């Protein structure tokens, strides 16, 4: 999945971030010369499909705030946090930047973020969905504002289903239904695969929930995913490799392999996020989406992104104004909806209803249906190390180097060390 590639070696993350707190921002204070403030914003979700949409939001903000220039900087997700950590450690942190829910705790607990409430005098900014706003509080303080959310659904190529004489997926499908269809749809001689679901952390915690398991103990002090439910979930993922989806060797580390496979009409089913909608507008075949199949239960991954400000910024008020505009203004909300750039975390349902008017994909209602059974990622202070550990061990199982049971046992031991 595009959003879930391996990031920086986060074993150094806490130390790196803490070090940055004593250093200044590299942002030049331009308020004295010419009266304008230059505000840097660093993002991963805008590139490559939504840079123009972000430009639209920036232009609207600058029109309302003529003394502020927003300079946008982008990086691919698999490079983003490495660059962000490096800039913070080197005292060149951007004034504002995008943070996802999974990494927010690390940055907030390290003291790298500006308390936006202290700048705004606004402990409960209006216009947001309450649960989204709460997700980006740490120790009672609002260190980021929710900017967007997205869900993972099952994409499918309608033409491949029709050609194979297989009934299209429905919301009532289970893993068994998906597996049976994937086997019929796979035609390796023609280079067609029936399914693609990456074998890694982000898919595992979700399928674990679908199998009725829990990732951590109730007190959050111990890994519990090496359970019978965890073995079932990991086996479900690993069993696809080399049968109904490509092997690690076939993928060969190629970036966006799954995206290109689906766009080329060679992939029947694809577990991915709604951020892919805009990039599929012009593919030469019919496709649609449905809520992902479950096992004993339904569970859909929901990702939250936010806008935070560096604690070292010299422009706290401007940073807060930009964060609030980008995350809750009508211009930002409508731009996101019209371009299928994820969804705004606003409380106005009328704004969200406009999302359903876009005819592609036809079953956009699946996006909202998936919110009825949410699987949030487990979050710990040493988040990235945990994600990497689980992904590494699952990859070993997928490659046949170890059994699923051995992989989960090793992963659980590593996570327990991180929790300790």
Could you explain how this protein is built, in words?
The chain is α/β, with parallel strands linked by helices and 420 residues long. Helices cover 40% and strands 14% of the residues. The chain contains 18 helices and 10 strands. Strands 1, 2, 3, 6, 7, 8, 9 and 10 form an 8-stranded mixed β-sheet that branches. It has a two-stranded antiparallel sheet with strand order 4-5. The model is unreliable at 1-33 (pLDDT under 50). Belongs to the bacterial solute-binding protein 1 family. Pfam families: SBP_bac_1. Keywords: Cell membrane, Lipoprotein, Membrane, Palmitate, Signal, Transport.
Describe the secondary-structure layout.
Layout: H1 13-20, E1 37-43, H2 51-64, E2 68-74, H3 77-89, E3 96-100, H4 101-109, H5 116-120, H6 130-135, E4 137-138, E5 141-142, E6 144-157, H7 158-164, H8 175-185, H9 201-210, H10 228-238, H11 248-251, H12 257-263, E7 269-273, E8 287-290, E9 300-309, H13 316-328, H14 330-339, H15 349-353, H16 365-369, E10 374-375, H17 383-398, H18 404-419
Parallel strand pairs: 1-2, 1-3, 9-10
Antiparallel strand pairs: 3-9, 4-5, 6-7, 6-8, 6-9
């Amino acid at each position: 999945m595009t959003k879930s590639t391996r990031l920086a070696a986060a074993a150094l993350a806490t130390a790196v971030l803490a070090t940055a707190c004593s250093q200044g921002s590299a942002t030049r204070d331009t308020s004295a010369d010419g009266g304008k403030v230059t505000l840097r914003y660093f993002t991963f979700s805008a590139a490559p499909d939504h840079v123009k949409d972000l430009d639209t939001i920036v232009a609207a903000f600058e029109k309302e705030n003529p003394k502020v220039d927003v300079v946008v900087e982008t990086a691919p997700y698999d490079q983003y946090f490495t660059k962000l950590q490096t800039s913070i450690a080197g005292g060149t942190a951007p004034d504002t930047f995008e943070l996802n829910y999974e990494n927010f705790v690390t940055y907030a607990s390290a003291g790298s973020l500006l308390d936006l409430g202290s700048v705004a005098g606004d402990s409960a900014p209006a216009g947001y969905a309450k649960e989204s706003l709460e997700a980006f509080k740490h120790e009672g303080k609002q260190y980021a504002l929710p900017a967007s959310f997205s869900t993972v659904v099952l994409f499918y190529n309608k033409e491949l289903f029709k050609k194979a004489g297989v009934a299209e997926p429905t919301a009532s499908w289970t893993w068994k239904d998906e597996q049976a269809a994937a086997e019929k749809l796979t035609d390796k001689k023609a280079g067609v695969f029936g399914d693609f679901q990456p074998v890694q952390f982000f898919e595992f915690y979700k399928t674990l929930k679908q199998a009725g398991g829990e990732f951590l103990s109730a007190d959050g002090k111990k890994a519990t995913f090496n359970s019978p439910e965890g073995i079932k979930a990991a086996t479900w993922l690993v069993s696809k490799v080399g049968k109904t989806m490509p092997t690690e060797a076939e993928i060969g580390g190629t970036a966006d392999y799954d995206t290109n496979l689906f766009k080329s009409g060679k992939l029947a089913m694809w577990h991915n996020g709604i951020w892919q909608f805009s990039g599929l507008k012009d593919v030469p075949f019919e496709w649609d989406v449905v809520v992902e199949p479950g096992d004993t239960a339904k569970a859909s991954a929901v990702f939250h992104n936010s806008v935070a400000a560096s604690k070292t910024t010299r422009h706290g008020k401007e940073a807060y104004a930009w964060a609030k505009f980008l995350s809750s203004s009508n211009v930002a909300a409508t731009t996101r909806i019209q371009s299928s750039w994820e969804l705004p975390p606003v409380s106005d349902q009328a704004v969200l209803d406009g999302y359903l008017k876009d005819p592609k994909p036809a079953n956009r209602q699946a996006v909202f249906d998936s919110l009825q059974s949410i699987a949030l990622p487990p979050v710990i202070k040493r988040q990235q190390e945990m994600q990497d550990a689980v992904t590494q061990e699952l990859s070993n199982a997928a490659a046949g180097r170890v059994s699923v049971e051995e992989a989960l046992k090793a992963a659980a031991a590593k996570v327990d060390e991180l929790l300790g």
